[in-house]
Design goal:
With about 450 residues, the chain is mostly helical. The chain has helices at about 30-45, 80-85, 85-100, 120-135, 150-155, 160-175, 180-190, 205-210, 215-225, 235-250, 255-260, 265-280, 285-295, 300-315, 320-330, 335-350, 350-365, 370-380, 385-400, 405-415, 420-440; strands spanning about 5, 25-30, 55-60, 65-70, 75. It folds into 2 domains: about 5-230, Metalloproteases ("zincins"), catalytic domain (Zincin-like, 2-Layer Sandwich); about 250-440, Serine Threonine Protein Phosphatase 5, Tetratricopeptide repeat. α10 (about 235-250) packs parallel to α12 (about 265-280), α15 packs antiparallel against α16 and α17 (about 350-365) packs antiparallel against α18 (about 370-380). Keywords: Hydrolase, Metal-binding, Metalloprotease, Protease, Signal, Zinc.
């Protein structure tokens, strides 16, 4: 599947500011998310968090930032990943954010995010994130569901005491996992001097994570004290190279990518980068040759088969794309993003009933993918299930922050679906969120 700027978790804010904020959107890619999970797993285990229940998600933003809003996910900006030079640097950021979760720093936040995995709750969560990242922390999002200015201001920003605690705890997680703690020092060096700048000129990370010379010195001392516990980990090096390489292949120009395709020394990663670059140049022959070379290197890697499916799908080679996605699904039958891509290809191929079944499996495993909801709405409409099509559309609009439109479709779904059914209840959730937002606007 393409490194798509999915609007799952996106929120278009209605602001009382002269210049509106840009909505936060996710970059969803199964390969990158799997690679990040491999990097995060030993840290999360050290923190007492579940690697399977805590997602590492990428925000479509070139600024440098990372944040958490609940226990279910750690968000990393694409710009931060691209800025990291090695696995240890990126892992130090993940460890710091994991420490905020494990240390209970989210408990004090006044905005209720316990329904963050629902369509309406997702928009509410990212409202505060968009405000804090932009520096306009007094902004009020339409989907914030009545949160006050103070609530939004406190949602993202950490106190100095929390930052110091997260530094110390995060460094301990790194040491326990055998990860080089000097990565944290190198990350902090990027942000040195931020305190001398006005708030509007600071990096997003510095706005939400207060920096100081004392913090830097403490992290230096901790890194020195834990230095003897670091261990070489080729797997971490590989997955860092893979995540950053694929992200950069979609974010940078094809020419830039081709010039640097082999910089990490992994043949399959080099071929994958070339496949993406040639695909973006609309050179199907060379793109397929490159991805087939990567598959030959790692034949049971579901993510290379998934990328092959994407290349074919976007080149309008539908039936070969279905075959490629089917192979990827067989290798990773529980991956929601791969299931979503497979279902999308089946829908394009006219296999509507099977497509809806596969897409429902995807939605059940990951409710953050707005494109799956769009495809499910189309599939149910083709099958004559207008009530289900309406509830899927309502949830997709809720994720987009278009709560007025979401309410219209939720009301339609409520009238069409059996009262008390699971789908009817989902429509009620969206309808309640829409009505609350409308009351706030009055």
């Amino acid at each position: 599947m393409q490194l798509l700027r999915f609007f799952a978790l996106a929120l278009v804010l209605s602001l009382s500011l002269a210049s509106p904020l840009r909505a936060l959107t996710l970059l969803r890619d199964p390969d990158i998310e799997y690679a990040l999970k491999q990097l995060a797993a030993p840290i999360l285990k050290s923190a007492g968090l579940s690697p399977t229940s805590t997602d590492i998600l990428v925000i479509d933003d070139r600024s440098l930032n990372a944040f958490v809003v609940d226990r279910s996910a750690i968000f990393l900006h694409a710009g931060l990943i691209l800025k990291m030079d090695d696995a240890a640097m990126l892992q130090s950021v993940i460890a710091h954010e994991a420490a905020h979760i494990a240390n209970g720093h989210l408990v004090r936040r006044p905005v209720n995010v316990r329904n963050a995995r629902t369509a309406a709750g997702i928009g509410m969560v990212l409202a505060g994130a968009a405000a804090a990242t932009s520096g306009h922390s007094d902004a009020i999002g339409a989907a914030a569901l009545g949160a006050s200015n103070t609530a939004l201001r406190l949602l993202m920003a950490h106190t100095r005491a929390e930052e110091n605690a997260a530094d110390q705890t995060g460094m301990r997680y790194l040491a326990n996992a055998g990860i080089d703690p000097s990565g944290a020092v190198r990350v902090m060096e990027i942000f040195r001097g931020q305190e001398a700048l006005s708030v509007s000129r600071r990096d997003a990370y510095a706005r939400t994570h207060p920096l100081s010379s004392d913090r830097f010195r403490v992290v230096q001392r901790l890194a020195a004290g834990y230095a003897d516990r670091k261990r070489s980990n080729p797997e971490h090096d590989y997955w860092f190279a893979r995540a950053k390489s694929k992200l950069s292949a979609f974010e940078r120009s094809p020419k830039w990518t081709l010039n640097r395709a082999g910089e990490y020394g992994y043949q399959d990663v080099k071929l994958m980068r070339q496949a993406v670059a040639y695909h973006r140049q609309s050179n199907l022959r060379r793109s397929l040759a490159a991805i087939d070379g990567a598959i030959a290197t790692r034949p049971k890697d579901p993510y290379y088969h998934e990328l092959r499916g994407q290349i074919l799908m976007e080149s309008r080679q539908i039936k070969p794309a279905v075959s490629a996605y089917a192979r990827a699904t067989n290798l990773a039958p529980k991956n929601a993003l791969i299931l979503g891509a497979y279902g999308r290809a089946l829908l394009a191929d006219g296999q509507v009933k099977k497509a809806v079944q596969v897409l429902e499996k995807s939605r059940a495993r990951d409710g953050r993918d707005a494109r799956v909801l769009r495809d499910l709405a189309a599939g149910h409409a083709k099958l004559g299930n207008t009530g289900m099509a309406s509830v899927m559309t309502a949830e997709r609009y809720a994720m987009l922050g278009r709560l007025k439109d979401a309410g219209i479709h939720a009301k339609r779904a409520s009238d069409l679906l059996p009262r008390g059914s699971a789908a009817w209840q989902r429509a009620q959730d969206v309808l309640s969120a829409s009505e609350a937002a409308q009351k706030k606007r009055r």
